[in-house]
Hints:
The complex is a heterodimer of chains A (525) and B (445).
Chain A: H1 2-23, E1 60-67, H2 77-91, E2 93-100, H3 102-114, E3 121-124, H4 132-137, H5 147-151, H6 153-158, E4 167-168, E5 171-172, E6 175-176, E7 184-190, H7 191-197, H8 200-205, H9 209-222, E8 263-265, E9 271-273, H10 278-292, H11 307-312, E10 318-323, H12 327-335, E11 339-346, H13 351-354, E12 358-360, H14 368-380, H15 382-390, E13 398-400, E14 403-405, H16 440-450, H17 467-485, H18 493-503, H19 506-523
Parallel strand pairs in A: 1-2, 1-3
Antiparallel strand pairs in A: 3-12, 4-5, 6-12, 7-10, 7-11, 8-9, 13-14
Helix pairs in contact in A: 2-15, 14-15, 17-18
Chain B: H1 2-7, H2 13-25, E1 30-36, E2 39-44, H3 45-50, E3 52-54, E4 59-61, H4 65-82, H5 89-117, E5 122-126, H6 128-150, H7 156-160, H8 162-173, E6 184-185, E7 196-197, H9 204-208, H10 211-242, H11 247-258, H12 265-276, H13 282-287, H14 302-327, H15 331-339, H16 344-369, H17 376-381, H18 390-393, H19 396-405, H20 410-438
Antiparallel strand pairs in B: 1-2, 1-5, 3-4, 6-7
Helix pairs in contact in B: 2-4, 2-6, 4-5, 5-6, 10-14, 10-16, 11-14, 16-20, 19-20
Amino acid sequence: MMRKSKRLLLVLIILSVAVLSFAGCVQQEPSQTTRPSSPSGTQPPGTEKPTTAPIPEDPTEIDFFIYDLRGFGANAGPIEALVNELTKESVNVTAKFTWLGAADYVTQLGLAIGGNEPYDLCTIMPRPGANFTTLSSNGQLTDITDLLPEYGAEMLDLTADYIGAYKIEGRTYGVPTLRNYASSVYIVMRKDILDQIGMTEKARNMKTFTEFTEILKAVDEKTDVPPIAGNKNISYQTGMISGEDSFDQTILFDNMSDLINVVFTDGDGKISLLPENELFKKQMLRVKGWYDAGLVYKDSMITEEHVDTLMKGGVTFSSIQTSEIGVENAKREATGYELVVVEIATNVLSSNFINKFGTGVPITADEPEAAVAWLNELYTDPRVENLLVWGEEGVDYVVNNGEADYPPNIDAKSVRFHQADFVYGNFFNAHPWKGNGADFRQRAMDALKAAPVSPYLGFTPDMAELANQIAAITAVNDTYTPRIYTGAFSGTDYAEYIAALKTAGVEEYLAEIQKQLDAWIAANK
Amino acid sequence: MEDLKLKGPGNQPLIFLATGILSLLTLLLPFARYTHNKVVYQMSGLDFFLGKHVMGGSVYIVPVKSLWIFVLAGLAVLITAAINRKLNQRRYAKILLIASFIQFICGILFIYMLSSNMNQTRKPAAELGVIVMMLVSLLTVIHAASILYRIRYLSLLDFMILPGLAYLLVNNYLPLIGISIAFKKIDFSVGIWKSKWIGLENFRFLFQSADAYIITRNTLLYNATFIVLGNLMGIIVGILLSEVFSRRLQKVYQTLILLPQLISMVIVAYIVFGFLSNEAGFINKTVLGGTSINFYNEKVYWPYILVFVHIWKGLGYSSIIYLSAIISIDRNLHDAAKIDGCGRMRIIGNITLPLLKPTIFTLVLLQIGRIFYSDFGLFYQVPMNSGALYTVTNTIDTYVYRALMQLNNLSMASAASAFQAIVGFVLVLSVNLIVRYKSKENALF
């Protein structure tokens, strides 16, 4: 026993000596008790262990938490390698991509940031939980105002007119994907049915909702197809139309990137409650008229399918929806039918159209400088942009007459990698896809330049202190809006809806946004 | 070896002094690393103990509390070893065991909190030093435990419970720390642990809205109905199955009844939709022959539809539990009753049901504990999330899901879940108390 414990003691003493000798090897940063007055360059000479050879230096690796719109992330390996070759050469940064599809992106992003995982970039996209308003009010994004001029000057220059949509109280928290933000609300109708009832010409030339209602009635009488359909989330379409009969007089409400779509402004600096507006109510009553006359697809208020999917499934003749130039081409592909498309009105260019897609630096990032520098490459180098949206030239796409297309013998199903041009970086640097025409980018740019601009472009309310009201109002909206937007409401529902909004605290909500808007106007005069 | 047992293990103060000093010395080892201007730097345990300015002075790492506790526990080990003659052996070993175990836990806490403590540095990561520190504490723990074992204070059985205990601790008790999220305003820039406490602010949205009454009522009444009807039907079907003569037929029935249990609620929702849809539903088009009821806009039908769907889906599961309880009843009792001239109904009434009572009590008690939770799939998917039906389909879970979908607010979601857990806990305790008062042997605890 004694011998055994002595042996143990000996081992412990040897261990102690070992620990003491190792203790000298801690590679410590020289102590520094004073704060530097400026972020760089003020360290006393000689205290910091310098990295003497700046070039060739190992590239900085950043992690990009990226939204996988089309689900090709699993095949992205070769694309990433090609992107990294380019960015390594230009800014000495390589990126590691974590692709996540629509189903997982929102939850995984929340978990990643909450779990302190060091992602350096993330896609901002219009889904609850991953949109700019939520991310910024939860404090999940890094303030990159000071990094942009130093590491992303060209990108800042390109997005100068629009980056305001990612500002809160004058500080920038993200970079918008540069694309055509101009959009309009369109009536989309199936041409084969119009031909059958002989109203194609009338549809092409219609100028009022009265004429549209006549067409819907004719469809109802002469075919089995429900004349019009919406879905629960249709608020972005019919919900924003003022109730004028003539398309020329119709305006679209500017909801100022309100997350829950209950406020709007009429341009004189006043915020009002949308459902209380007479014109809004008039439009809802028009839709109710359609519903009561049996013109609306009855399952509209419970379906979550996109209206294009409903049309593809043959359960609707028409839909009203927001889209952009190139709508005929895009909708023909989505529905599988020849279409007649009529524009009702153009949206005012406001923050919520711009900050739909963009890229931000999560608060947990380790390399924000390198992340911004990398992002700058994405916006300025067309090779990087094309790789990320269409894949490798010759393998995933070929360019014919200025348009990108699938290579011979490859189609949408068998292609290795294919994303969309409106999610990442600079849309205007990507080749237009087949069917849009080689001059598509120019036309898109023209449409963007011509779009009416909201006087409050650049204002995004900070909702951090309104969480309780937003939760309560969201619950009220979910109860009433599917019925109201699809016309399936009874006489008392509308008043009940407004009363319920008020119980939920919508007035505090309006007051807070009004306060912030007043401050914004005062600061931007 | 025999005379060793007679002598006993001895106090071995030198060994404990050595491990105590060694454990404190490990603080000099590198505990973590970070990157500054592309150079990797390390921080020793001492730096964390005292606090340090890093990242060129721009970030201050505050002294870490767990290391302070670690040092105090280490000093306790040293003092105990030094005054060993004044303590009896059992108390001496117990103090050493507890103090060194606290040291070990401090190591775990240090790693757990590291990312939050070094939140503002770049690429923080733990270094081996902290592992060495934990190993040294573990060595002390084992050594103290071996003394306790040799003086017969601990038995082998005490050691055998350790894996199970560790599992319970990690899986069931450690996550309880998360309840603090419900009382905080999460600030991701400083991490969850350093976020501000805001009291009950997160709970406000649950009670602020006009829906608070409706969701509580729906949750409670639906679950009460499910408990009563579910168990009743389960017992009846269980008894019926046990009375089926042909084994093969019994298996066939059992499988058929169990089948819906295996279907996902999303699929069930579409099966129901197939029956109730406005445009193509079986009931509207075939049964009612054209006079259409807009089921998804008429709330009067839904309490019945939901109860039916729940029973239809859950029957197989509950009936099997009851069937297995019935099978375990001694057949001799049945045979004896038969000889005495009992009919089937009397056997069921006087033998099967009384012997099922403990099973029924246990199942009902467990279900009451979850009375504030609702089957999310049933209440969200089956009514197709239709707004018009919310007054009869909205429960706490669906309300919280819908309200927080937009916000992605961690704290508010935790608040709702903490509320359910606490109320459920109180309910189980009180119902169990009543059962204990009425019939002690049927109580859970």
